Amino acid sequence: MHVWQVPITVHFDHGTSKPELMEALELGFDSVMVDGSHLSYKDNILYTKYISSLAHSKGLLVEAELGRLSGTEDDLTVEDYEAKLTDVNQAQEFIDGTGIDALAVCIGNVHGKYPPSGPNLRLDLLKDLHTLCSKNGVIVVLHGASGLSKELVKVNSVFWLGCIERGVRKFNVNTEVRKAYMESLSSPKKDLVHVMASAKEAMKAVVAEKMHLFGSAGKAW
Ligand code: 13P
């Protein structure tokens, strides 16, 4: 039998409080996201820096958000008027002040569903943030990747560069995976094991599709 070895990393997303992040550091996650986007800019730096030093002392990677994403995740809603795009000058100061490895950028991306008119991403801002991040050896992360078209994700012509070509190296997808799970529950099944198996298959299909879209499929050997 052939044993496939696929490198997997387990990441703790949106740590909005010190106690939960301290627990995540103890539990053995490979990386954590410090989400201080609800705090003032100064407090976000202090909070992120604190967790960042602890995580780095354990050899873990740290992602943090600058700006603020609107939308709904885990039944929590950040209203549109609270959303804030990432500021390039602040980003340099934030990276210097916190020592993070990855920056979750806010360029018009949202958690949950995009409006019927579709996503309105500031790709010019993404390009500037990527230039700055690469100078500092920081990875660019895009949350709110459910509902992004193929055209927005990657190059589709010599005239059009997508988010990957503009620097994004990690996409966060949640809504589409959850939707597949919920939809699988709507068709009747004979037993709980079938309900669980079909929900798992539905989620796996979305993950596989996204891995192909983002270009991470087939890289394990
Ligand atoms: P979506 O809501 O677009 O799936 O984004 C998820 C996300 O960014 C999780 O952190």
Automatic annotation (TrEMBL):
Alphabetized Pfam families for the sequence: F_bP_aldolase
Molecular function, one GO term:
aldehyde-lyase activity
GO terms in the biological process aspect are: carbohydrate metabolic process
Gene3D superfamilies with a match to the protein in the record: Aldolase class I
Can you say what this protein is called?
A: Fructose-bisphosphate aldolase
> What does the organism's lineage look like at the top?
Eukaryota, Viridiplantae, Streptophyta, Embryophyta, Tracheophyta
